[in-house]
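Structure tokens please, single chain.
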Amino acid sequence: MAAAANDRAAAVRELLRLGARPDLQERYAGAATAAAAAGVHPLEAMQRREDEFCASMNARASFLGWTALHYAALADSAGAARALLEAGADPTTRDHAGRRALHYARDPSPARDLILQHTRRWEQAAAAAAAEERRRFPLEQRLKQYIVGQQAAIETVAAAVRRKENGWADEEHPLVFLFLGSSGIGKTELAKQLARYMHRDDPAAFIRLDMSEYQEKHEVAKLIGAPPGYVGHEEGGQLTRALARRADAVVLFDEVDKAHPDVLTVLLQLFDEGRLTDGKGKLIECKNAIFVMTSNLAADEIAQYGLQLRGEAEARAAQRARASPLPTADHKVEARDKAPVPVADEASEPLEVSRHFKDSVVRPILKRHFGRDEFLGRINEIVYFLPFSRQELLTLVSLELKRWADKARARHAVELRWEGGVLGCLADGYDVHYGARSIKHEVERRVVNQIALAAERGALARGCSVLLTERAGRVALAVRCPPSPDYTPVDLHAA
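Here you go.
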């Protein structure tokens, strides 16, 4: 980095020949931060930076996340840039401010032309690799690995994103979703996994804003930055700062119904034009961003409607099962030679929310709260999250128990196992209003509390195994301590 910053192309080439890694990122965040870390005066830290690194660069500024190519671009060193790029330096790497090396190159200059040429080449290769990855590993497949149930919601989001990725969407407007449903049912997690899929786990590409922090009119300044002359003007807004770093991020506005109407006015401009003006008057283009709003509006109505749909689907499946004729003796031999044909379980198929329910129940609630048709009109897809089916609840319980089994093994060297009846027993604690969180709390209350009490009373030690069993609707514990091969029931109700 020092060689590139000082335009020492020969030194850069020699260091690369000796094994220097061209994409290592800078950790220098300014003289004040460096001084605090080293326990010296900021002036001393600034002097050392100028003496030992580069005298022509501002030692007060933060260079956090810079690569050697960033320094070569700022120093206008075409030779250093060429050596780094030939060694495999990635010109698309972003610094802490979200800027590539190209941002710091002079225009025009040979260094800029060189970096621009390689940036385009890397972008084309990345686009081709991403297209191949999407073909082999579609978004629906990725999301279903992390989201339990919600098949209809996943397919709706994936279809809209596919249109955008493949150029079959309106390029003048960003993609906007509104996720509706009860708490703890997967709305936030779906937004997170969408960001991971779109931007390969880049943390800067997922922006989450809790809109309950924007309930007052003056808090608009927190979002886009205070105007000139007001406290905090130089800091900028939470949203504008984040979008300036990654204009193609996935932005989650959590519980948007709690925001002040003036905040919604800002969002309306953002959704309509794909641009935002911060408190300093700087225009931020973000038409490639994806905006996701979550809300609990109409959650009770959606939950009850979902339960009704699921009940109807289960009734249809049961009716089909009764209508299916049993094989006769004449067909037994023939049936043995054929592969079994699975019967579709309608209860497990995606439940479709009717247009009548959307227009007559949900939309009036949204319109009454937001009070403006133009805001709702800028939403590309309203996505409905319905209550979990019985099989999905069993999956949630199993995942939660596995999570605690991993913790028990890592923290306490305790092996946790369970019988099948435990899953159904714990799934009975599901509350449609709290979603997966109710399962989490049920496991903590009925399983983890017992294990902790057993450990406190000395019935469970490191190296032991715990077996969960179901007895008359209750979860019971049995402990096996080596070298004993048998599990011994633990009576935690005994004094």
